[in-house]
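for ur thesis appendix - Polysaccharide biosynthesis protein. copy paste whatever u need, i formatted it the way the template wanted (i think)
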Amino acid sequence: MNKKLKILIQKKFVKNIIVLASGTIIAQIITLTFMPIITRLYGPQIYGLMGIYLSILSFIIPVAALTYPTAIVLPPKTNKAINIIKASLSAATFLSIITLGILLIFYNDLAKIFNLESVTNTLFLIPLVILTASVDQVLKQWLIRENQFKVLSKITIYETFIVYGGMVLIGLFFPLATVLIIFVAAKSAVSSLMIVLSLLKNKDEFFKLIINHKENFRNTYQEYSDFPLYRAPQELFNAGSQSLPILMLAALFGPAAAGFYSIGRTALSIPSRLIGSAVNDVFYPRIAQAANADENITELIKRATIILFLIAIVPFGIIMIIGPWLFSLLFGAEWFVAGEYARWLSIWIIFSFATGPSIKALPVLSAQSFHLKYTIFSLVLRILALLTGFYLFESDIVAVAIFSITGALLEIILILITLRISSHYQISKGKELF
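the 3d part is after this line
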């Protein structure tokens, strides 16, 4: 048994997961340390305002560079990767300027729509966040491409400490929604700056390659057009389905409900960040390599999915049983309802946790068109689930329960269809070989 474990740990794929996961584990320990202080300093109403703002950012950031950064790890040749980087940053700059123009005209109306009248001026941070988030995506994908997982691991730790530590330190004197929002908005800038400093310190060729690269990158937009055409809308709708509950709960039940959902979702995302994100970040280049080498990618997806599902059962099972009391103990008595939310959300998150390999596999399987259709379909069902809870039951907890059960069923469907697509993909590749 020990011998098998040693052999497993020595494998490059597993080593990379361990490196990334270790950094994420430390980062989440930092988060868990600061969160009980943050929830007691700010309270559900203020935390809800931050949750609304974060939902807006979560809706925009994934498509800030039209998802071109995701393609950076794919091409074997470095010059093509540099083309993608330049295309990504150009797209992000354009979107940032457009967003600023919209805000200058409609910022008051947007503040009213999203219940952010008390923090209206913070909306003007959004164009800057679009730029910094895009730079952050580009730099992180470059590190993944270069297998610099140790650097990524360290950045995750430092970034988490600075952001959450800042929320606590400033919150001791100014426990305001503006403080939380500024630190949330600054997260990608902090991460980008640290990656840049690390690349300069290690004398990485990244900046030299960018400066000396003279090739016209405009053809890249067409060559990787499936990313903005399919993946970007899919990411947009997926972000919408993630952000929608907070925005709808705020509109239907008030900012406090948004705060309860936000803290519940944040706490439940910790296991995903601990292991899920590390596995998925390493899995993406691994499955791309497997597809190029004609390996059995269906089996690879299946194994990773089962492992993540089994890992998820324990922490989320505990939340299902003692969620409300655990939240009251950790975050304060006023967060009991957040524990009720978390109890239901756990049903969905277990299956969401396991879908990571499927989602990472879809671009490699050239199935982004399907993913877009699926995401639109799932978004519609999630909206109907929340509206059913509001209009038929007039209960925020029932709304979250219906939303979560619907989400779990949708995740199962996604896994099954991805495995089917993968098996057909391999059959078609087999025919090409012969």
